[in-house]
Each structure stands twice: as structure tokens, then as C-alpha cells.
Design a protein that fits this description.
Blueprint (H helix, E strand, L loop, with lengths): L20 H8 L15 H12 L11
Length: 66
């Protein structure tokens, strides 16, 4: 949906509305201290990629299956 259709994309962090530790860590981190800047300024492509990863049923990291 385009912004000109009356939907504001500012402050849209719905991509982080996922149960899980990683989503909470991403939301809590102060991204303004990084080159990425504040979450609200991230490109939609980055938000979509993060959303795909957070919703992925594939386990990863230290607790993943060998």
C-alpha cells in the first residue's frame, strides 16, 4: 500500500510483532548509534527481509540442530 493512499508508513514497526527473543532484542536496541539509523528510517526491503527471517521456522544459531 502506498503512503499516498492515506496510510502512514512512519513509525511502522509491525514487522517486529513476532513472539521471540530476537524480535525483542531488535526492537530494544538503540539503532540510532549505528549506520542503519533508527528503525523508522529503514528501507521497506530491510524490514521485509527481517520479517521473513523472524517468521522462518528454520532454526539457527547456537541452539540449532546439528
Amino acid at each position: 500500500m502506498r503512503a499516498e493512499e492515506g496510510v502512514s508508513l512512519v513509525n511502522d514497526q509491525t514487522f517486529l510483532r513476532v513472539d521471540g527473543e530476537l524480535a525483542r532484542l531488535i526492537a530494544a536496541y538503540d539503532w540510532t548509534l549505528t549506520p542503519l539509523g533508527p528503525i523508522d528510517a529503514w528501507p521497506q526491503s530491510l524490514k521485509s527481509t527481517i520479517s521473513l527471517i523472524l517468521h522462518s521456522p528454520v532454526r539457527y544459531g547456537a541452539n540449532s540442530a546439528s
